[in-house]
Amino acid sequence: MFEIRRREQLTSNIYLMEISAYWVARAAKPGQFVIIIIDDKGERIPLTICDYNKEEGTITIVFQIVGKSTEKLAKLGKGNKLKDVVGPLGKESELMYVPEEEKANKKILFVAGGVGTAPVYPQVKWVKEHGMKADVIIGTKTKNTLILEDMMREVADNLYVCTDDGSYGMKGLVTDCVKKLVEEGAKYDEVVAIGPMVMMKFVSLLTKELGIKTTVSLNSLMVDGTGMCGACRVTIGGKTKFTCVDGPEFDAHLVDFDEAIRRQSMYKTHEIATDSDDHKCNLTAAVNHTIKKRRVPVREQDAVVRVKNFDEVCYGYTMEEAMEEADRCLQCKNPGCVSACPVNIDIPAFIKQIRGGAVGHFAQAYKIISSSSALPAVCGRVCPQESQCEGSCVLGKKGDPVAIGKLERFVADWAREVKLDFTEVPASNGKKVAIVGSGPSGLTCAGDLAKMGYDVTIFEALHQAGGVLVYGIPEFRLPKEKVVKEEVENIKKLGVKIVTDVIIGRSITIDELFDKEGFSAVYIASGAGLPKFMNIPGKNLNGVVSANELLTRSNLMKAYEDGYDTPVYPGNVTIVVGGGNVAMDAARTARRLGAEVHVVYRRGKNEMPARAEEIHHAKEEGIEFHFMTNPVEIMGDEKGWVKSVKCVKMELGEPDASGRRSPVELPGSEHELPADCVIMALGTAPNKLIIDTTENLDATDWGGIQTDEHAATSREGIFAGGDAVMGAATVILAMGAGKKAAKSIDEYLRNKK
Fold first, then answer.
1. Phi and psi dihedrals of 52, rounded to 5?
2. What pTM value is reported for the model?
3. Residues 707 and 723 sit within 8 Å (Cβ to Cβ)
């Protein structure tokens, strides 16, 4: 799909490529960028779009070899195909919004440094095509490293070239040229500078002195490009912004360039290229009898062994173990477990089938589960059963509840291993529904709608379907190839189409899905992937990362595996801030990557929202917990890297809005914990891109999409659910939202006139 149509070597280490990328080309605008993934083991490379052809469906990129990934990219030629090209991403250039009456008098000075000439070109071209004046300065080391000179001359009013060695054009720096032009009387309304971070810093200092508005592009900071990891955060006017969501262009005079330069160096060692050479039950007697049989224990990897690998910790039940555990179920006439399940699986019915112990019975158990759940193998592993179905089990009142989750997993794994397939594709009703996001909510909604006869297409921003299942939950809890990929394939068997690498709001808008693509309804299940950081001193030091970043690099991009290009920084002594499941996932991942890990949580163990099983596993794996402790400052060394975390001890006060007792600082309890890495696991928020690009789509005060009890939004035909509506929650709650939405969409479309 993403074929290289043209490849040109511009200098010894700078290359131009024209690539087929229909979804990107149709929506691209000056100033935007793409994420390129070369192959299955490749990292996500952010590259600004140099040019685009909507008719041909192609984009042009120019890149310099700066690391292993760009070195690998440069070796590809015409006819080769890239695994993924995602975009367009980022906000388009603000120059596109200059009022029509001001364009004729507008004069812009573009300053390009080295390979930064490439992203400057489409902006200059657009400016000239829309009646504005544009001068361009290109700075480069020597004449041999100059690129795109002829192309730029065709669109610029005046082109000035500066070389460090004086071999071509003016000898000196771009700042020398800017100063010279202004001294000679040139007047500019704005300067746009794109190039090396140091160059942009000094251009910014000069133009601030000269009083000229200046914009810079910080796309070189980006890692993921979709707002998930937080690695591209930068301080703008004292506030933390995300380059990929809020940028990549910013007011240069507000950028903390020194911090940005430090951040850019975080993975430098990895990226260096090689040299060119409650009810009372009447079953008390039965319970007292059964309780003598405790829950059948599940086999697990030994903690000493598993901290050195990413293999699944829990082995699951054997057939005999599953049958023995299923025999504990009392088959209640009014089962609380069913009503406690967000997708209402008939739990007693499928467990009864396991008791039978025959192939036909196992198959029937799977049929019962899959009629309600689109992702049984996933839910059997990651659902918080202790607070849902198992939390409502009668046996749990006086002992262990039935291991419902482990039994669900057993059935789903058995069905996969024997290649059981109950797929029935119904006749099409001719109506198209678009789903935004291929996480648990989107997949569930898509599967249910497909079973009703709808033509369903899922649009996924990443290069791989699964959402949080692939980027957020570690391999040792949820295997990607063996489990997630197979669950996604089951959805596709129903006729659901999944289009990856499409950013709704950038590649195509919600309104265009209706107007241009002919969809009758849209379900937004885009999740909540924007990480939160503590607003404390030192939050932007090198070595401070979000749990999303660590987990995305490790889970989605396989940074923990040899042979994969994506770097990861787990630190040597790492502090994880937070007490939820994501914090446990991040801590256990960092431990496997070789770090000594400490979890800092401002409340006590009993208040931790993480699953008890995950906390238990983390302790087994040698992770140390610091309860009633809260960071107040991250201390850095002279090079801008984390060296310790200043903390205070807490005590619990009155309950807050969530019902949990609020932590209160203990005076005089300040102390430091040494660390060279801090992982923030404080929750996530929805990316506002869809809200910002969809007219009259109402949002909540905290940034989620506002819906009614039927998942309907303020816009007719648009529905939403999952984390994009609720905020970060569990997989099963997202699935429940997807089921509700599918029912509402069906009712809406059947009654629509």
1. -155, 150
2. 0.84
3. no
